[in-house]
Amino acid sequence: MLSFIIRRILYSIPLLFIISILIFFIIQLPPGDYATWYVSQTKALANITQEQAIELTITLREKYGLNDPIVFQYLNWIKNIIFYFDFGFSMHYNKPVSEMLADRLPRTLIIALICHFFATTIGVTIGIYAAKNQNKLGDNIATIFAFLGMTIPRFFLALLIMYWLAIVLNSDNTGSMYSPYYAVQPMSFAKLWNGILHIWPIFAIAVLGGLAYNMRVMRGNLLDVMRMQYIETARAKGLSENQTLYRHAVPNALHPLVMFQGIALPYMLMGELEAAIVLSIPTAGPLLVESIQRQDTYTTAAILFCLTVILVIGNIIADILLAVLDPRVRQN
């Protein structure tokens, strides 16, 4: 088992290295850079001559090393990450990227993991119920619900909820993590509850989509397992339907579901990011969009790379859990 875990971790290292290269070079593809964006904004807001604009562009590019070849910029960036855990300097926010990641990323990950837990738990439960009552009313309702959860765009749901809160209810619980009073207060139960009132749409949107996927996967797996020969043998031995279902069918149906969690976690994380962007909740999502718009290279690259690391770790954990459930996996 230990050798399997070590192999799986070692395999992920070159993968992360290749992904980091792709991330850094792809975000450089749009024309211009942060200096170009900053000068264009300055020209729009203030009266500066073309000579002043050129001089400002040259100064910014020299200050942030934007004149260096892209290869050198990448090597310097990845070297600082590996040896110093330094993700670079945000050109727009004028602070180390690590400070912004420390503020936004844990919040994003905690929300995504909570959503993942509820989506998996509820989805598996509904999936078992739907498979047990195949083609009955409860199964049909669950199937329709899962179809809607998988097909309705999450950003559209976020827009509907935002309209309902802001226009219909005239609520001020939008666009922030806490109300102004609680934003400067130390953590307490009242502040926690205030935060929940602000971010519950993210939970609802992310959980809905993940729940639908987990329900569909569990239902399909369980129906396949229930047709297996050893299930018929268990019934022939005189086991009740519930004993056959929960003692033999469900544990074996969980194997593909555990493997599916490597895909479900990225889906859940992307759902959280989409909802946070629409609702302007200060997690990694809005920061990523702002950094892309402003061509803040190191902020964009750091967020994407950290999200990639989280997804790879999630897949490793899923593989380890699958290896615990099925010893045959360890031989691969």
Chain-wise SSE layout:
Layout: H1 2-26, H2 34-45, H3 50-64, H4 70-84, E1 89-90, E2 95-96, H5 97-132, H6 137-151, H7 154-168, H8 180-183, H9 189-225, H10 229-236, H11 241-279, H12 284-293, H13 297-325
Antiparallel strand pairs: 1-2
Which short descriptors sum up this protein?
two-stranded antiparallel ribbon, MetI-like fold, 332 residues, 2 domains, globular, 78% helix, mainly alpha
Strand arrangement in the largest pleated sheet: 1-2
Question: What percent of residues adopt helix (DSSP H or I)?
Answer: over 70%
Q: What name does CATH use for the topology of the largest domain?
A: MetI-like fold
CATH class of the largest domain: Mainly Alpha
Total domain units: 2
- SSE pattern: HHHHEEHHHHHHHHH
Q: Which segments are poorly predicted (pLDDT under 50) over 5 or more consecutive residues? A: none
Full CATH superfamily name of the largest domain: MetI-like
**Can you tell me the CATH architecture of the largest domain?**
Orthogonal Bundle
Mean pLDDT, nearest integer?
83
* Radius of gyration from CA coordinates: 25 Å
Q: Quote the distance from N terminus to C terminus.
A: 11 Å
Major β-sheet annotation? 2 strands, antiparallel
Structural class label: mainly alpha
What sort of overall outline do the alpha carbons produce when their principal axes are compared? globular
Beta fraction of the residues?
A: under 5%
Q: Please tally the β strands and state the result.
A: 2
Number of helices: 13
